[in-house]
Write a structure and sequence with these properties.
The complex is a heterodimer of chains A (325) and B (430). Chain A is an alpha/beta fold and 325 residues long. Chain A has 15 helices and 5 strands. Chain B has 3 domains: 22-158, 3-Layer(aba) Sandwich (Rossmann fold); 242-335, no CATH class; 338-429, no CATH class. The chains are: A alpha/beta (325), B alpha/beta (430).
Chain lengths: 325, 430
Amino acid sequence: MSEIELLWTEKYRPRTLDEVVNQSEIVARLKKFVSDRNMPHMLFAGPPGTGKTTMAHCLAHDLYGDNYRQFILELNASDERGIEVIRSKVKEFARTRVMGEVPFKIILLDEADNMTADAQQALRRLMELYTASTRFILIANYPSKIIEPIQSRTAVFRFTPLKREDVVERLKYICSNEKVKCHEDALNTIFELSEGDMRRAINILQASAALGEATVENVYKVVGLAHPREVREMIQLALSGNFAEARNKLRTLMITYGLSGVDVVKQIHKEIFSSDIKIPDEIKIVIADLVGEIQFRLVEGADDEIQLNTLLARLALIGKKFKPG
Amino acid sequence: MSIALPWIIKYRPKTIDDVVNQEEAKQAFLNWLDNWGKPGQKKAALLHGPAGCGKTSLVEAVARSRGYQLFEMNASDFRRKSDIEGIARIAAQTSGLASKRKIILLDEVDGINTKADEGGIEAIIELINVSRNPVVMTANNPYSKNLLPLRQNVLEIPMKRLTETNVVAALKKICSAEKIECNDEALREIAKRSEGDLRSAINDLQAIAETYGRVTLELVKSFVVYRDRQYAPYEALQKLFNAKYLFQARDALTSTDLDYDELFLWLNEHIPTYYEDPEEVVRAYEALSRADVYYGRIIRRGQWDLLSYMYDMMGPGVAFARKVYKYRFKPFRAPVRKRQLSETRRSREVREALAEHLASRLLASKATVKTEVIPYLQVIFKYNPRYAARIARGYSLSEEHINWLAGSKASEVTGYMKRGEKARERRREG
């Protein structure tokens, strides 16, 4: 047994366009760019886990060879601090010309839809400024959040959620390669739970296999463990009027999972609308508004715990009025 | 030893004799009360003297032993016309044959702020005029400018500062009633520091006794040092939650030189300690969270002008979250959050660092790694340490990463890693 193991999402990631097993139309068009040694600016749009980033890397690999990573600049809009940082990195990267068959370098900007409209305008100017030496590949979940001027300057590729047979086939391939016992119904369950997101599907498979084998039972266990119900439990404690317990829960939650206040607030927002939270719908709207206000305050520099405690205290009072089941 | 009841309540003077060292005041007060309503007599009395000398206690003891019903009014209520009318209605009622006689008590009238509580003093004068029952007021400082218009309408009864001996005697009684080992020197030390304020002396005694189970000179002395540092926020809270007036609530915080973070920490911890009613808790937290928002703006934008709004919210805002005023004593308890705060921060930092570490390998943003990868890693690390050890090696995870991911299983994971290492060395040598 090897002493080293990788996450299967990395281990089984396609390295070349030939290895990609779905999104065949997109693959065909990208292969054309490779043979032409030229390509336009591009926008890869689609839901998470459909292969956008992977495909960009495969394309770069096929263009530049195994050492492709020195020819691309990888940026992530949600990790970079502001357009100024992006500007200086792009400027630095674009300054040197590449020697070789391909006359341009690639700038890969992931999660571009997380940029504000203003930042996107600045990005558009960058794209025009460095067209001679670079090509941009923008990656986004929601193309509608990309401003019109950028959409019109890029070739847009729409990635679709993966089909059941694609996902199940891939999972089977991994199972046989890893010599893991995988039940057909377990793989189907994984597909249902991952909603066409290949990354999530593979992660669930690997964690289930770590529990022994991929059975339906283990799949559910993994998903339950990975998406703890503690936020919901905290909300329910608060709604049952038990403010002190809810407050303790909040503290352990933040310690165990390393969540920030904003992380918790966002999860509360999601949970509130679940049918398990039994309070009248119109009250849920009031709570949603409250949650939004708390998030705004946190972003503005307020204290995580004080603000969240305020929210929990409010929930306790609401719960007292409506006595959820 | 019961911690449910604050000793200053439990050991309030029950009879007039229990009120010590105030013979002249007692005489004057009883004399006035007995002759109340006769021509030439003042309708109201003002008991004044230093804090904790027994003003309120005297009124209570007299009411109890002479069979009066005591109506205590919060002077800040005087601002609202409806309240004034409500009080006036009670005050104007004559006592029927069957009902008890009444005393109207207005505590700490020097706390009325002439600006903020506009009309408050006039309302009191009006109340005295219509009242058909004795009106008693207390004040620390009768010479306060605010009280000037009142003084010609009232009989002033000065009360003395208690001596050290008085205080020691009172403390001794409590010690024997509570069956606590109390050393005389220790009690003298407490009394000396109280400067004649019996209330604060009793509070100190209770705090020491409940913390250590006995009262010795060393404990008192170390408590004083401790109190100056650790105890200050507790005292500020005690004052804050028991403030009757706006200015007291504000002073409770501004008169300390505690830093703001400390105050927030303590208030955040202890709002549910002092308030049980969920509505009070909500109101208090809402005020505190507003203060926190101001504080955030102050820090971020350097707007120190906003500081007074912050104090308004965290002081009076929290104090007046209560529905009814009552004396609230809670034993000293340091916030647990301080320790947890650093744990939460550390935990968040490790998660952040881990996400960054994995992001470029997995071609994903830190945010995606946090939500889509780390939760599954945690499952693997907690349920299959042996397998986890191989992954830890594959990504050169640090010990801190492993500890965070595996929690209680961390040592198993590192154990497997070490075994793997040895096996490798053997192979290299072999």
